[in-house]
Here is the input.
Amino acid sequence: MDFTGKVAIVTGAARGIGETTAWMFARRGATAVIVDINGEGAEKVAAEIKAEDLKATAFTVDVSNKDAVDAMVQRVFGTFGRIDVLVNNAYVSGGYAIVTETAQETWDRVIAVNLTGAFNCSKAVAEKMIPQKSGKIINISSGAGINGSLSSGVQYPASKAGMIGLTKGLAGDLAPFGINVNCITPGLIRTWEPEEMAEQATGWTLEKVARYVEVEVPLKRVGEPEDIAETILFLASDAASYIVGEVINVDGGGMLDSVAKRESLLGF
Ligand SMILES: NC(=O)c1ccc[n+]([C@@H]2O[C@H](COP(=O)([O-])OP(=O)(O)OC[C@H]3O[C@@H](n4cnc5c(N)ncnc54)[C@H](O)[C@@H]3O)[C@@H](O)[C@H]2O)c1
Here is the structure.
């Protein structure tokens, strides 16, 4: 897949799946536009990419801030004269609490970043893609948006289910202009350090992660950021030009019924 001359905005690209995606776009010829609330992290990733003679630029933006998003999109378009790809990837989890203990601020912030942030970016970018009559928008949801999540409270699955609805709405709106909008629902992806998971106090330990993978993931491995990034690049490529409004699970089969699940639950 060659993205020479293309401009790809990736939100939440200072680390994790977003960072890997930005690198992959840059290695395949695109200018990677690294957008993150963590400006220092975004600048660092852009500098590392440029040090390899590849193209990248960084913006410090809170995607929930509409004015900041609009200004970033204007500057990107003003500089490069086109925007080919938007990956709505930035997120916060809000941690776990039972619904009765979930703070209003937690709910508001998670919806504001994960869902309204994706709306803000999509709206601003669509204004540039529509006259171009081309573009790809890829929304990063989660299996939690389909099945819920025992470790992420109510706000995270709600925001991620919203991402699927946003995808469907945008896809129908924008397809007549030659713009493809699709969605990916990752399973458990190795973007965290074990200490970070423990910090989130969601009950995850290394042993529990191993057991989860054994029982829940038929492929029997944790996903890597590259597993998601490759799917993002496929959806951003001409090879996916007839795919519209689709939701793709990239989860090692985690949503399937499996022998391991049955053995674990029922003993056979
Ligand atoms: N890692 C997984 O196991 C997993 C599973 C399912 C879905 N996902 C989804 O994949 C995406 C990436 O996950 P990850 O694990 O790479 O995350 P991560 O925590 O490693 O990175 C998220 C990035 O988003 C940035 N961010 C947070 N708030 C922001 C804001 N307001 N504006 C701009 N940037 C902001 C953070 O600074 C960070 O750099 C998310 O949408 C997540 O829901 C991840």
In short: The mean pLDDT is 94. The chain is about 50% helix and 15% strand. Residues 7-191+224-252 form a domain with the Rossmann fold fold (CATH 3.40.50.720).
